[in-house]
Amino acid sequence: MILNESLFCAMDTETTGIDPMNGDRIVEVAIVPVYKGRILYRSIYHTLVNPKIRIPATIEKIHRITNEDIENAPTIEQVFGQMRSFMRRSIMIFHRAEFDLTFIDISAKEIGTFPPSIDYIDTREISEIIFGEKKALSWLAERFGFEKPNHRALTDAITTAKLFLKMTRKLAGSQIEELVHTWRGQEW
Length: 188
Prior knowledge:
Elements: H1 2-5, E1 7-15, E2 26-35, E3 38-39, E4 45-48, H2 57-63, H3 67-70, H4 76-89, E5 91-94, H5 97-110, E6 118-122, H6 123-131, H7 137-143, H8 153-168, H9 173-178, E7 181-183
Parallel strand pairs: 1-5, 5-6
Antiparallel strand pairs: 1-2, 2-3, 2-4, 6-7
Helix pairs in contact: 6-8
């Protein structure tokens, strides 16, 4: 069964805005490994990222990451190899996968590397199977009694991992396998 045989990694990013095509970039990355039904807390990867642009004040209010916080953080070029390492050997778990994957794709192209081929599952898609419609991360966290996500990559990635474990218990193995998609980047 795929759940007991595969390494999964829940991933979340925080960004300078919502539109990477208009210059928004990643400011925080968290990757939370999940193996054999358990979150591997000791193997979590988390870092702030200096996007080389300013974070707008309206966005700072959402995730509370300030320009001072990222001033001395590594750049995406410096963290992308670690991100790629997780993405290469895992089935990634996202909530609203296309958002994060688009930022990863743009980042790869911007630093002059090929976008990684990423096998992934979207917990929003799982929520649609279970609840009949796609649900927000905060709604799902409340529904399952988890701490409310706070628009920080680490907390949101841990919540996504917990939701993945909880919701996949309600699905058959074949249903889970059908939810694995592959992202190979987009042509812009």
